[in-house]
Amino acid sequence: MNCSKFRAMIVGAALLLPACSFSESALWPSLTGEDPTGGAETQTTQQMAAPQATQIAANGGAGAPIPQLGTTDFKPVGVTPGQDTGTFVGRKVIELRSELQRMQDQVGQHNGELQQLRANMVANSLGYHNTVAGVNTRLQVGTTPGNPILVQQFNTAQSALDNLNTDIAAMNKLATSVAGVSTMSSYLSESTRSAFGVSGAVDEDHRQLAILQDEVDQTVVLIDRLLNEVTDDIRRQSSYVATERSNLNTLAAGIKTGEIYGASLSNVAQSAEGPGPIAGKPMDTSGRRPLVVIRFDRDQVPYQQALYSAVGRVLERRPDASFDLVAVAPTNGGPARVALNSNKARRHAEDVLRSLTEMGLPPARVAVSAKTLATATANEVHLYLR
């Protein structure tokens, strides 16, 4: 007897044992099936998922690191004073110098707003991560489902993320203002160059114009860099907040069950190019080995952690994976009993699908169907990898 057959017999024997023979740390629900990469057979249990949960908590409990913000302090170069030469060009230089001073004042004001927004974002990000890490640490060591202390901490984390959204909105408004100043700087630069071609100027006019042009050019570069950094900060922070929104949804599911999951499955699934496949119509699962088997032979079967672990491992290897979720009912007991079991199995499948959605798996990745199985002794839900 080869090793693969021997392992299959062990799994089969475990499935035949009654639910009362398992403790909280028992190997249930069973996760069996083919390796998502198409290699050797993979068997996963809730106990095997513990090291992953420990690593998640050690990393701060959130799926995405705090994004790096820009660090430049955009201080204008200043405007060199000059004297009125009494010529038309001299008066034009005074006018342009005044425009440059006004523009640099605006740049200084926008720079102050940017530095304050960055400080707010750092504080809110750190507060968010510290709160989420505390929740995950508590979930890791074990707690009651719906622990009100964790619910309160969850609300605190959500408020910190809302504050980050407010900061991003303010930064978007700042970017619009800086873009307006950038347009003005281009006009001022062109006007300064054109002044060299105006007749009736004295040497002092051109000397002051040359100084003014240098300072205008430096200010234009400064404004462009300011706009680029603001835009980059917005892009990184927006992506970060979107990722953490998904992680919060998964965290809420963990608080509800009193178990630690980790980052949202949607963040793993989105690493594939494009939005990912659509599961479409259910496929024939005959002859295929399920990735996950959940037997509902008692109330409140604790399947969520093992389900998250199994699907997460698949998505790490195949971010574009889709699944078939099958409600399985036994055939014993006559037509009435079969019909009753089939309805219960469908409700269990709906619960499993809801759990997957709360964990972040896009519902379009899952096709749901139902069947009866003569070898089943209780209602089951099978999850297959397509």
Note the main attributes of this structure.
386 residues, alpha+beta, 60s Ribosomal Protein L30, Chain: A, disordered N terminus
Set out the fold topology:
Elements: H1 3-16, H2 50-58, H3 88-141, H4 148-195, H5 203-257, H6 265-269, E1 292-295, H7 304-317, E2 323-330, H8 334-358, E3 366-373, E4 380-385
Parallel strand pairs: 2-3
Antiparallel strand pairs: 1-4, 2-4
Helix pairs in contact: 2-3, 3-4, 3-5, 4-5
Total number of helical segments? 8
**Broad shape:** elongated
Strand proportion: 5-15%
User: How many structural domains in the coordinates?
Assistant: 2
As a percent range, the share of helical residues equals 55-70%
Structural class: alpha+beta
Mean pLDDT: 80
- SSE string, helices as H and strands as E: HHHHHHEHEHEE
Q: Describe the biggest sheet?
A: 4 strands, mixed
Radius of gyration: 31 Å
Q: Order of strands side by side in the largest beta sheet?
A: 1-4-2-3
End-to-end separation in angstroms reads 30 Å
Number of strand segments: 4
**Low-confidence runs:** 1-63
